[in-house]
Amino acid sequence: MPQITVDYTYASEESIDMEGFTRALHETVVEIAAAKPEACKTLLRAGIAAYGYEDMDQSHTLVHVTIGLLAGRSEETKANLTEAVLDLLRKYVSSEDGVTLHASAEVRDLDPSYRKFER
């Protein structure tokens, strides 16, 4: 915990600084949600996305960040974290000519059935 997933598409590798973003993201989660640095785990999933009825011509970049936290954080804390993540996306995802960026984030409670193990 926290379990973080970043799903994204990109027009070029230079448009997203994922290394810088994930470092800043972990620091933000620690600061706002009182997580431990070593508990932050992020899965990056690059892919291809379709937008509306348009062809998949890379004229749209999509980035969605999902952060799953153990229950107990206030709605205010979760909202503050979501806004901070959007600010980080503004900083670490650059605009490209002719490409529309669609960025979103959500912070949710992990289901009570959540379990994990480490080896």
TrEMBL record:
<dbReference type="InterPro" id="IPR014347">
    <property type="entry name" value="Tautomerase/MIF_sf"/>
</dbReference>
<dbReference type="InterPro" id="IPR004220">
    <property type="entry name" value="5-COMe_2-OHmuconate_Isoase"/>
</dbReference>
<keyword id="KW-0413">Isomerase</keyword>
<protein>
    <submittedName>
        <fullName>Isomerase</fullName>
    </submittedName>
</protein>
<dbReference type="Pfam" id="PF02962">
    <property type="entry name" value="CHMI"/>
</dbReference>
<dbReference type="GO" id="GO:0008704">
    <property type="term" value="F:5-carboxymethyl-2-hydroxymuconate delta-isomerase activity"/>
</dbReference>
